[in-house]
Write a structure and sequence with these properties.
N-terminal domain of MutM-like DNA repair proteins, 7 helices, alpha+beta, 12 strands, Helicase, Ruva Protein, domain 3
Length: about 280
């Protein structure tokens, strides 16, 4: 699943259709679509795209008087065909430049000649076209974005105090009060802060809290700089895989030597997720 840095990379790459108008939309096979097929195609037609924002892992297409919320979930993909190139973001698949294909769910035709395809192999992703008021309600459950100005050290200390009994990794994965963090970057932040992800928030001293706060921001910014992390499930909107993999400290490195102390990286399960850590560096 694309995480915050990957979704942010997609958002930036798709800004090429900003200020363009949707000439038409065709819904082929989209079970998680709001509103229904006929109403959606009628309502989206003629809307001008003002901007594309991101809330956690959710993309928000801001149109005139309407907002379209898009979540890629596990296998979602956005592919933009322009007059000169095809750029793709999300889950890569064989023959992704063959458009439309059997996984294409919705097609958007823009006024500049661009065509945006929403593809989804497993149909877990969703598209919701709602009013700004409805969008506010749908975005409300999401916590504060770690890269926003609201995510201050004061805010961080306050939420940690309120959740002192929570396990570090479980707390960071639950998307509230902090949103956008996924398995990869929680492991990386804990490693950078030299904290075991199995500890409780209440056990962290003042320095450890500050270190983890800074580490969260640092690992996300590094990944965005490198266009995300690629294994076999993510590709940037320019069709290229992210290069952050080579900068990872622990994730996906079970049995390999720690880059700091050479101790073999271990893997366990925390909050139902595979969790990587260094048994020597992290306390």
């Amino acid at each position: 699943m694309p995480e915050l840095p990957e979704v942010e990379t997609i958002r930036r790459d798709l800004l090429t259709v900003r200020r363009k108008t949707v000439k038409s939309a065709e819904v082929l096979d989209m079970p998680r679509l709001v509103p229904g097929r006929a109403f959606f195609m009628r309502r989206i037609k003629g809307l001008k795209l003002k901007d594309i924002e991101r809330v956690g892992k959710l993309l928000v297409f801001d149109f005139d008087k309407w907002q379209m919320l898009v979540h890629l979930k596990m296998t979602g993909q956005l592919v933009l065909r322009t007059k000169k190139e095809i750029i793709s973001g999300g889950h890569p698949m064989k023959g992704m430049t063959e458009l439309p294909n059997k996984f294409t769910r919705v097609i958007f035709n823009f006024s500049g000649g661009e065509i945006l395809y929403f593809n989804d192999m497993r149909k877990f992703g969703y598209i919701k076209l709602v009013t700004p008021e409805e969008a506010v309600k749908l975005k409300k459950p999401y916590g504060v974005d770690p890269l926003s100005v609201v995510f201050t050290e004061k805010f961080w200390n306050e939420v940690v105090e309120k959740s002192s009994r929570s396990i570090v990794k479980h707390f960071l994965l639950r998307q509230t009060p902090v949103s956008g963090l996924g398995n990869i970057y929680v492991d990386e932040a804990c490693f950078r802060a030299r904290i075991l992800p199995t500890r409780s928030l209440g056990s962290l001293n003042k320095k450890e809290r500050r270190d983890l706060y800074r580490a969260i921001k640092e690992v996300l910014r590094l990944s965005i700089k490198n266009r995300g992390t690629s294994f076999n499930t993510y590709m940037g909107a320019d069709g290229k895989k992210g290069s952050n993999y080579e900068f990872l400290g622990v994730y996906g490195r079970k049995g390999k030597p720690c880059k700091r102390c050479k101790t073999p990286i271990k893997k366990t399960r925390v909050a139902g997720r595979g969790t990587h850590f260094c048994p020597r560096c992290q306390k």
